[in-house]
Automatic annotation (TrEMBL):
PANTHER family linked to this entry: HOMOLOGY TO DEATH-ON-CURING PROTEIN OF PHAGE P1
Gene Ontology molecular-function annotations: kinase activity
PROSITE patterns xref list: FIDO
Protein name in the entry: Type II toxin-antitoxin system death-on-curing family toxin
Organism: Candidatus Allofournierella pullicola
InterPro entries: Doc (IPR006440), Fido (IPR003812), Fido-like_dom_sf (IPR036597), Type_II_TA_Toxin (IPR053737)
NCBIfam families for this protein: DOC_P1
Length: 129
């Protein structure tokens, strides 16, 4: 499994701000670290988010909801979720409208962790073996 480091997520955020506009930079480093590391949390030796999809959902929701960045929290939450899945071989299929609904839903709470996990499952392309 490929893990997105805090440095990589910072690079992704910087890229998003350059491409789409907005302020680059962190508002709260602790909230940022918590969001990036949260998907890999364990308790009693057990992963709390064992699948790639669960990790991606946790990453997307916490990056969006923690508001660790000065700007672009919805964008980085959505982008990091998709990049994490992509680099780990999970193929997704979605429209621009689907992405907008995902980002806004995570931000306004209409899509919580379970809702985002469901969104991922619905948009995942199953591989043929």
């Amino acid at each position: 499994m490929i893990v997105l480091s805090t440095q990589k997520v910072m690079q992704l955020h910087r890229f998003l701000m350059q491409e789409t506009g907005g302020l680059d930079g962190l508002r709260d480093e602790g909230l940022f670290d918590s969001a990036v590391q949260g998907p890999f949390t364990t308790f009693g030796g057990q992963e709390l988010y064992p699948s790639l999809e669960e990790k991606a959902a946790k990453l997307g929701v916490t990056l969006t909801k923690n508001h660790a960045f000065l700007d672009g929290n919805k964008r980085i939450g959505t982008y990091a979720l998709l990049i994490f899945l992509d680099v780990n071989g999970v193929v997704m299929e979605y429209s621009d409208a689907d992405l907008i609904a995902l980002g806004l839903g995570m931000a306004d709470g209409t899509l919580d962790y379970d809702g985002v996990l469901d969104w991922i499952q619905k948009h995942k392309v199953e591989a043929f073996v």
